[in-house]
Amino acid sequence: MNVHDPKLAESPADELAANVSVPFETALAMPKSVYTSPNFLQQELEHIFAREWLCAGRADALAEPGAYLTMEIAGEPVIVLRGKDGQLRALSNVCRHRMSTMLQGRGTVRSIVCPYHAWTYNLDGSLRGAPAMVANQSFCRDEIALPEIRCEEWLGWIMVTLNPDAPSPAERLKDVEALVGYLGMENYTETFREEHRWNTNWKVLAENFMESYHLPACHAGTIGGSADDLMKMTLPEGTEAFNYHFILRNDAVPLALAHPDNTTLTGDQRRTTWLLSVYPALFISLTNGYFWYLSLHPDGPDHVKILYGGGMSPDYVGDPEARGHFEAVKALLDDVNVEDRGCTERVYRGLCSQLSEPGPLSHLERPNFEFAQYISRLIEAGRARAG
């Protein structure tokens, strides 16, 4: 029996379960239906995005009391802000009166004011005031507050989840810290943050980050030549929470190497770039001198919302030539993004072709297969919960 034959599967979830049931050495790319099916996307939103930890960006971006950003998790509007007590909090971004959304984008506020009827909330979510409510005998200001959503800082990242029972990021991702803790990622400083929307499925972009197989071709004009021979690349097995690989860089991008004044890093540590894929949707490229990241959220099967940010390590922030170094890196990253957008949008167009079909995976695409296993595992667990 050919387990990859879509005629034998009843749904995209079944197709995916069959797809990941074989050894990696004989694996194919994920079935087309898991990228294009609206029903499968709904399952992803319910069983993955509404239950897992998602990244809202870097904690240093919300340094001052009242600094906030907004996001949406599986259709749920969320505010993340720094309270007057210095704590990071995530709150519902829906007024408790007539259910209008309130804050938009990013900024700094002294309080949260609903633009519809001016109900006003403190930074901890408690209701401060509500005009013209004295005649309503059921109204009690002290009993009304914005629902709080779990929010934790992990190695400098703001992590948010709608799931009250999810293990903490520190527990779930302790192996990440074991791998890259020597770099002190929590001390890197964010210098840019942007939002984009591309015409591709979120998993296509995720998979694109996970493998460096595409570097020589897709990035021939930029970073394609900055890594050693692809056949020498190390692709360790990942965990149930993340996968990773690393690249040993040459001197084509000097900021990726350890700072000349750094005497603590030795050997290959001085030129290693880590590619960390934290499930489901945080992707971090971490070097000795800088980092950049993508935090993804689906916007329909055919579009993905992208939080794109990055910054520098403490060694380079203190370098008087740091700004010039990083401006050059940022310009390079922007060019890389243009190339990635072209590649991933072409993949989505191909997925929608009647004549296309998944092909066999390279040994350089082990992370993609592990990602497919993760998606299938959570979808199957969700289906089991639903009975």
Main β-sheet, spatial strand arrangement: 1-10-9-4-3-2-5
Look at the structure and give the mean pLDDT: 92
Percent of residues in beta strands? 15-25%
CATH topology description of the largest domain:
Naphthalene 1,2-dioxygenase Alpha Subunit, Chain A, domain 1
The number of distinct β-strands equals 16
Provide a descriptive summary of the structure in words.
It is a single chain. This protein is α+β, with helices and mostly antiparallel strands and 387 residues long. It folds into two domains: 265 residues, Naphthalene 1,2-dioxygenase Alpha Subunit, Chain A, domain 1; 108 residues, Rieske Iron-sulfur Protein. The chain contains ten helices and 16 strands. The chain has a seven-stranded antiparallel sheet with strand order 1-10-9-4-3-2-5, with no helix packed on it. β15 and β16 form a beta hairpin. α1 crosses α10 and α3 crosses α10. The relative contact order is 0.16. The model has no long low-confidence stretch (mean pLDDT 92).
